[in-house]
Amino acid sequence: MDLQQEQEACWKLELDKVTKLDPSKKKKKKKKKLFIREDATYDSEPDYGYAELLSRVFDMLREEEVSTERPRTVMMRRPQLLAQGTQITVCLDFAHLCTTMHRKPGHVIKFLLGQMETKGWLNKQHQLEMKGLVSSQHFQAVFQRYIDAFVICSCCKSPDTALAEDNGISTLSCEMMNMKLPPHRYTCKKMKDRLGFRFVLCSAVFMILTQHRALANSHGVNSEEEWEMVQRKGQQFTLNGQPFYVNGFNTYWMMTLAADNSTRGKVTDVFQQASAVGLTVGRTWAFNDGQWRALQKSPSVYDEDVFKALDFVVSEAGKYKIRLILSLVNNWNDYGGKAQYVKWGNASGLNLTSDDDFFTNPTLRDFYKSHVRTVLNRVNTFTNITYKNDPTIFAWELMNEPRCPSDPSGDKLQSWIQEMAVFVKSLDAKHMVEIGLEGFYGPSAPARTKFNPNPYAAQVGTDFIRNNQALGVDFASVHVYPDAWISPAVSDTFLEFTNSWMQAHVEDAETYLGMPVLFTEFGVSAHDPGFNTSFRDMMLNTVYKMTLNSTRKGGAGAGSLVWQVFPQGAEFMDDGYAVYLTRAHTASKIISLQSKRLAIFNSLCGWRCKWGCKKKNHTALDALLSHDDEL
Fold first, then answer.
1. Which residues does 368 contact at the CB level (< 8 Å), separation at least 6?
2. Element (H, E) at 75
3. b or e along 402-429 (b: 16 or more beta carbons within 10 Å of the residue's beta carbon)?
4. What would the pLDDT profile of 88-138 be if each residue is shown by its tens digit?
5. Which residue among 9, 217, 399, 443 sits deepest, i.e. has the most Cβ atoms within 10 Å of its Cβ?
6. Residue 52 catalytic?
7. pTM to 2 decimals?
C-alpha cells in the first residue's frame, strides 16, 4: 500500500489488484498469415452495444466460476489524533478503525504500542489514549505497518481476511481463497491458475468502460470532481494536501426561507451569487427552537418539512461547491436560543431562574445533546448522505456567540465547551468543530484584555485562549463588530480597532493555540450614523488585507466570512449588514479579488508552502496584490 503524503484526508487501500501489463516487456510474436478459403461463407457479427458487451463478459466470468466483483477499494479515513495537554494523545476514532479492519482492539493496541514504545489504554469511549505526544505522521506509519502485516492478503490483495492466533502465532485466513496464510510467507496458488484468464477479461471490461466513457464525454457528460472534506493540519486548513484559505459569507436565514416554496429560490440565488464571486464557505443556522417555522418544536420533536428545508440548503451548497459551517444553537433569543431551552426546562418541572442555566443544568445539556445527535445523524432527503459523512459541511459550531455573564470567571462556559466539543467529536470525528466565540479575552490572559473593545467584554464569561484549548476544538473563531462594541457612529477608530483585534488573535492562534483562526463574522451596519458604502468597502479591504498578511507567510489567519450576503427580494430579512452582490458593484469586486488571491495561494505546492516557495510562479498573485488600493 502507498501512504506517502500525510496531507491526504483519508487512506486509500487499493485492493484486489491484478498485475499490470508492461507492454515494453511483452515478447513479440510472429504474425501468422491468414488464409481464407474463397468458397467459404461467413455470417457478419452483429454490432453489440455497451450493455450487451458488458453482459457477455460477465456471463463468461460466471461460466468460469470466477468472482465478478470489481477490484475493491476500501476507504479508511486518517486516524483523528488530539493532544490532551502534553502528557496524553488520544485517537478519537480508534474503535471505528478496528471495526473497519475487522480486528480486535486488543490485538491492534498491542502492536501499535509495541512499535511506538509507549504505554496506552482504552478509555470509556473506546478511544485509544497514549502516553506522551504522538505525531500524526508517526502514528499513521505504524498503523500502516499493522495493515500490511495483519489485514491485507499479500498475494491477492484482498481485505476479506480473518486473523487467528495459535500458540502465540498469528495467521491470516484469506476468505477468497479459503486458505490459511501466515503473514508475509504464503502464496495464492489458485490465483496463479486464474490470473491469465481474469486479466484478459478485466482488460476487456476496461476497454469497454473506457470506450463508453469517451463516448459519454463526447456528448458533454463529465464525471463529477471528488468532493473531499476539508481538514486541519497544524495552523492551516488543507484540502487534498493543498492549503485551503477561506473567503466566505454568512446568510443565517436560509433554512427558514427554504421551508416555504415561494421563497426557496432565494437560497439558490444566494449560493449562485456567492459562487460567482468565488466565495467557498458559508455559515448558517442549523437551529430554530420553538419559534416561527421552528425546526425543533419541543425537545427532540422536529418539523419534518423544516428539516427538509435544511436538507435543501445543504444540497444546494454542494451543487455550487460551497461548504457550510452549521451552528447548532443561539446564545441570543433570536430563533429560540438558550432562553428557549430554559423555557422547555421549566415546562418540564425544573425551577430555572437564569438563561445561563443552559450551560449547567444536566437536563438542558441533555436537550442540547439530543439536538446535536439528531442533526449529525440526519440523512439528507435530497442527497441521501448522512450529515456527519457529508463533505459539504465544513465544520460544526457549538453555539453562535456564547456568553455566560453570570460567571465572569468563565468556569461554567468552559465546562460546557469541554463536554460538548468531545461529545460532537464522539459522534463525528471526521468534521472539524469550533465554538462560535466572538473572541473576547478573559481571566486566563489578563495581559491580552487590553485588546478587548471595552471593559465589559472581559466579564461575559468567555476566554478566547482558554476556551479554544479545550479538547475537540479544531479552530478558533472571532467576530469583528466595532460598531456594536465601541460606538455606533462610523469613524476611523473602527479600522484601527479591526487591525489590532485581528492581529492579536492571529498571534495568539500561532503562539498559544497552534490552530487556524477564522474571522467568521465581520461587517458594518447601514443603520450606523455616518454609514456610507465607501466606508463598508474600506472595512472589507481592511479585513482582507489583514488576512492576506497572515496568508503570505503561511500563518494561522485562515480567512474571513462577511456578515452577510443577500439576494434581491430578501430585504425583509435585512438587519442592516446585508451586502447585495448584484447591486453593490464595488463591494462585489473587492470580494471577488480576494477570492482570486486566496485561490492562487490555495494552489501552492503544499500545506507548508509559504510566500518564499520557488516551486510556483507567483506572477499572477503579484499582479493581484498590486491592486490593493485600486478598488
1. 328, 329, 341, 358, 420
2. strand 73-77
3. bbbebbeebbbbbbbbbbbbbbbbeebb
4. 889 988 888 888 888 889 888 988 888 887 888 898 888 999 988 888 878
5. 399
6. no
7. 0.66
410 vs 28, higher pLDDT: 410
C-alpha cell at 369: 445533546
Cell of 473: 476544538
Higher-confidence position of 430 and 35: 430
| Angle in degrees, 0-180, between the axes of helices 265-276 and 304-319, rounded to the nearest 10 | 20
Cell of 225: 470532481
Dist. CA 375–CA 395, nearest whole Å: 13
594 prior amide bond cis, ω within 30: no
Which DSSP string corresponds to 568-626?
Answer: TT-GGG--S--EETTT-HHHHHHHHHHHHHHHHHHTSSSTT--TT-SSS--HHHHHHHT
41: pLDDT strictly greater than 50: no
Task: Kindly list the distances between the CA atom of residue 146 and the CA atoms of 14, 183, 543, in Å, as whole numbers in the listed order.
Answer: 16, 11, 47
List the catalytic residue out of 401, 434, 438, 510.
Answer: 401
Q: 58-67, 324-333, 521-530: lowest mean pLDDT where?
A: 58-67
CA distances from 58 to 47, 203, 204 (A): 18, 13, 11
**Ordered strands of the 88-91 beta sheet:** 81-84, 88-91, 128-131, 120-122
Q: Which three cell numbers stand for residue 87?
A: 502528557
Place of cell 502516553: 131
pLDDT of residue 261: 94
Cell of 398: 457549538
Q: What number of CA atoms fall less than 13 Å from residue 234's CA on the CB side?
A: 17
| 203: confidence class by pLDDT, cuts 50, 70, 90 | low
CA angle 147, 151, 154 (to 5 degrees): 95
Query: Crossing angle for the helix pair 533-552 and 493-508, nearest 10 degrees?
Result: 20
Q: How confident is the model at residue 187 (pLDDT cuts 50, 70, 90)?
A: very low
**What is the grid cell recorded at 195?**
490470473
- C-alpha 289/C-alpha 292 separation (Å) is 9
Q: What is the pLDDT of residue 166?
A: 59
CA dihedral defined by 138, 143, 145, 148, rounded to 10 degrees?
-150
pLDDT of residue 2: 44
Residue 101 has what pLDDT? 84
* In contact, 561 and 520? CB cutoff 8 Å: yes
Q: What are phi and psi of 9, to 5 degrees?
A: -70, -25
- The percent of residues above 90 in pLDDT, for the chain, comes to 58
pLDDT digits (tens, 9 = 90+) for 260-298: 999 999 999 999 999 999 999 999 999 999 999 999 999
Catalytic residue (choose from 316, 397, 438, 521): 521
d(CA 123, CA 401): 32
Under 8 Å between Cβ of 522 and 479? yes
The arrangement of strands across the sheet holding 557-563 comes to 432-434, 393-397, 323-327, 281-285, 246-250, 557-563, 517-522, 476-480
Q: Is 14 a catalytic residue?
A: no
